[in-house]
Amino acid sequence: MMVGPFGKTCNQVGGTLNENFYKLILEEIRSEYINQERLMKLSQEDQALAEKNSELTIIQSELQKRNEAKRRAELLYLEGTENAELYRHYKAKYDQEIATLESQIRVLEKDVNAQPPAEAECRQKYEEFFARWEFATNSEEKNSLFSSIISRIWYNRETRTSEITIKIEYI
Fold first, then answer.
1. With b meaning 16 or more CB within 10 Å and e meaning fewer, what string describes 128-153?
2. Which residue of 35, 36, 104, 120 has the smallest Cβ count within 10 Å?
3. What pLDDT sits at residue 163?
4. pTM for the complete prediction?
């Protein structure tokens, strides 16, 4: 590890990305981005997302029922049909149930919004990427395309053989 003016730096000599590096990344994308294992994982995540959406719909329906029941109890009290003690009892009960349901909805919505892209979306990104790659003429355009599907690239260059190994983290 070398030490520079800003602290520790990588001991590998830097360089510009050449065509071999781009080809290596493209090969990795072709073999890994839509491989069966990754697609199966995405399919399972799609199923889990569908279950969460179904659960979210059920809880939202329950919330709507509780809000309606609370409104009916208030109307009965205001009309004088029910006494204040009974109204306070039901209001407290419904307020507690509503707060619990709203909390469950927030948690589920957070989970649903944090889901990674679906299998169909991954295939579409893959096809768009390679369609646009054919027309990329310079390294800036290629880097921009890479950043559309890749969040991080780790690479290691062997100093004696100059062989590069990479690992890609996809968006």
1. ebeeeeeeeeeeeebeebbeebbeee
2. 36
3. 67
4. 0.52
Give me 39's structure tokens. 């697609």
Residues 6+ apart with CB under 8 A from 125: 117, 148, 149
Cα–Cα distance between 127 and 129 in angstroms, integer?
Answer: 5
Nearest partner of 33 among 128, 127, 154, 126, judged by Cα = 126
Phi first, then psi: give them for residue 17, nearest 5 degrees: -75, 125
Q: Distance between CA atoms of 83 and 91, rounded to whole angstroms?
A: 12
Cα separation, 46 vs 120, in Å, equals 10
Helix/strand/coil for 5:
coil
The torsion angles phi and psi of 170, rounded to 5 degrees, stand at -90, 155
User: Chunked in runs of 10, what are the mean pLDDT values of the chain (171 residues)?
Assistant: 50 60 78 74 82 92 94 90 88 93 92 72 80 84 81 70 66 64
DSSP 150: E
